[in-house]
Amino acid sequence: MRDVAIIGAGMIPFGRRDEDTLMEMLAYASLKALDDCGLGDKTVDAVYVANMGGGMLQHQSAIASSLVDRLSLMPAAAETIENGPASGASAIKAGLLAVASGYYDYVLVVGGEKMREVTGWRATDVVATMTHPQAEYPYGITLPGMAGMFTRLYMEKYGVTREHLLAVSLKNQEMGTLNPYAHVEMALDREGIFDSPDAVVNNPVSADPLHLYDLCPVSDGAAAVVICPLEMTKAGKGGQKTPVLIAGFGQATDTQTLQERDDPTDLKAVTLAAQKAFEMAKLKPSDIDVAELHDAFTILEIAESEHVGFFKKGEGGKAAVAGKTRLGGQIPINLSGGLKARGHPVGATGVAQVVDIVWQLRHELPKTRQVQKARHGLTVNFGGFGNNVLAFVLKRVEV
Amino acid sequence: MPLDMELEAVLRPIQYPMVPYPPKVITLANGKKMVVRQAARQDVPAILKSVHPCLFIERDYYDIVSARLYGELLAWYRYRVKSEYCLMGQIDGYLVGIVNGRMEDEKVGMSYHTLAIDRGLRIGSHLFAAKMEYHMEYLKQDSVLIVAESPIGFRRWMIEYPLEATQIPHELGGGDSYRLTRKIYFKAKPRLVVGTRPVPQEWMDEAMAEVKFADDDTIRERIAGLKGR
């Protein structure tokens, strides 16, 4: 198996992009990644496109086939990868394996979603189609609903409080104001969403005990990476930027329904995916300089920070309050703003997480978001409610 | 041209006596303080300057809401509508939202429009709630008739309160009216109607000194920018 490096990364600003079609967003992000590596589009052997809802939201299928035509990348191979909100990381994994195997040299991976052309209710329903078709969906479960129940259990078992959730929300929205790609660029104020009696309207209960600002927005957006064998970067055929090695990856699944798990607060798939990624990279959690975790709900950043091994169970919330997950802290998490502020166009998210870590490891970000001398990064892309999780450990390659 | 006051007396509708809406201040999600106060008739020209750029924004039905609001405020300014009022939200003196309505009669209120100029801070929700508060707690009316012209309005008013559906026509046309009753209002009040009185004098002085408004491009960006909201 060959080592595989990321040599190009690109993203378009997330948000509500009324003026763009899904295909246009995918094309823009792809061109940014191709421009970033500077190799030209004729080098692309294969294209993997991550998208969850195109069939339901845009009534569009065979999206990858359409994209290669739009970008004039023929005769590159093309496939669409659908794996719920973990589609992005799944597509990168597919590209990674294809390059590692030696079958392809240059692969473009792009993830995108256009969710804002339907109402929030419809988008929530589309996302809820990943729940169990007999045991959950018919009874009206939504992902926020699941997250609410999970939070309640986590509070009871580990003493997580609203103060802990608030720390995540304030941090990630603050980081969003520093990220030009973020959907939400509005800093929150503790008084306005928590202490003031007016907070009852500003930050209403969405899925008890989660409030509005504990949830990520519904977003449009796309992100892309170009990967190739590490050996080609050493031979001067790896583009113009500092390569970033995909040092490790892991994927694990769990039961689809939460109630079938021995302990619904135990996100086993997160633990296993991260462990596999660390093992392959020959690194441990304490080696990681910066992480992008899947904070579709504030509780998930806390729970994942524990399950990947940054903190002991029950310590993640306290760490967030203590500032250990901020820039300059023990392990900076979601300096992009995370899903909470950068946004969550589901098919794009797993790719966007990797793009943000690539920028961190290349030391390209402004000081307000850049972890100094960052060498190792972690991403966790969380599908379903933790029933299909992918983790990547990325490593800066010193040229 | 000088007004023919004899003719004006015919053209001008009778006004019901309306107690003033006492101003209040609301802390928003970003920590900013929004003063909600009743607009005076002489405030209308300044308000219209903020409404005008919204006439050309198709997104989220801003065009139709703004066009109608513009006409309603002008009708109030020119004494061509019965018992209309306008409430507005100001942050640091800047106009960030407008709501209006009128008394159909002493018992029934007619809700007109809600226009949030700054978005993402639930300004529309706060101002709509202030409007309902005015009808119920100060004008002491029994009910308010409401229609929504945008899906966002429908979600915010009809579903969040929730309002009761009726088959009563609304004077704005469109779908049948929904109705806020006193029972619905006081049940919803703890979770939807907020604010503190009295407004500290310093903020009140700033709000009353001048209705400031952002330039057209800023208003358009706040409402129709590429970002979410």
Structure description:
The complex is a heterodimer of chains A (399) and B (229). Chain A has a domain at 4-119 and 219-234: Thiolase/Chalcone synthase (Peroxisomal Thiolase, Chain A, domain 1), CATH 3.40.47. In chain A, 37% of the residues lie in helices and 18% in strands. In chain A, the strands form two sheets. In chain A, strands 3-2-4-7-1-8-11-10-9 form a nine-stranded mixed sheet, sandwiched between helices. A two-stranded antiparallel sheet of chain A has the order 5-6. In chain A, helix 4 packs across helix 15 and helix 7 (162-176) crosses helix 12. With 399 residues, chain A is of the alpha/beta class. Chain A is globular and about 60 Å long. Chain A is built from 15 helices and eleven strands. By secondary structure, chain B is an alpha+beta fold. Chain B has one domain: Aminopeptidase (3-Layer(aba) Sandwich), CATH 3.40.630. Helices cover 37% and strands 21% of the residues of chain B. Chain B has helices at 5-11, 44-51, 62-77, 123-138, 151-159, 182-192, 201-209, 216-224; strands at 24-27, 33-38, 84-91, 94-103, 108-116, 143-146, 164-165, 178-181. An eight-stranded mixed sheet of chain B has the order 1-2-3-4-5-6-8-7, with helices on both faces. Chain A binds chain B through residues 13-19, 116, 119, 183-193, 196-204, 213, 217, 219, 343, and chain B through 26-32, 59, 120-122, 125-126, 129, 151, 155, 190-192, 194-196, 226-229.
